Sequence to fold (213 residues):
Amino acid sequence: MLEVDQLKAFYGQAQALFGVSLQVAAGEMVVLQGLNGAGKSTLLKAVMGLEVRTEGRISFQDSGGLQEVALWQTHRRAQAGIGYVAEDRRLFSGLTVRENLHIAAGRDASALEARVLALFPALKTLLDRPAGQLSGGQQQMLAIGRTLMTRPKVLLLDEPCEGIAPVLVEAIRDALLDLRRGGMALLVVEQNRQLAFAADRLLWLVAGKVRHS
Ligand code: ATP
Fold:
């Protein structure tokens, strides 16, 4: 589904990734771990085409076959089916939960909303509340839900459980496992053991390189 081959990433002159290769298949969850500064967030941004300049191949399997997306703009990668949830969630805090969901959706918004609410029932009673008034865990559910409204086939998640109450961590984990069962490919940056235990593969990143798999 997603294949990264010898990926390098640069912030200006500073190199942050030094030839990372990985694959995530449909229905698979790969968890990315490593110390602060190892390059985990950079890897997700590079796949999404955000902030960094890259070298190397990023291939994505969609209905049109295997596409090389490394030179595509971010919006085109998103339209093709790569979904990204940033560490800071980037919600519209003054808009309601429902508005946050619908802002990302095209056709079939109601059906997609129903699917998101089935995955995250905790959001059902919060639909009319401004996103800025939600707890961290509720905001994380909303951020994942909003990305799901774009019908991704691959989901890139940056620390979805960081700083979140344990009961909501479980809800988020269960939702991600549900998505995996449904065939989603998941690439998750996460130190949380609950997700690491459920991973199909763990990759350990050290100084911009995969050290263990
Ligand atoms: P953390 O767990 O702290 O989020 P990380 O593994 O996600 O760490 P990255 O944020 O990807 O690490 O950072 C990788 C390297 O790139 C670090 O050396 C960092 O200082 C550098 N870096 C990250 N963002 C920028 C930026 N906007 N400009 C310049 N260098 C950056």
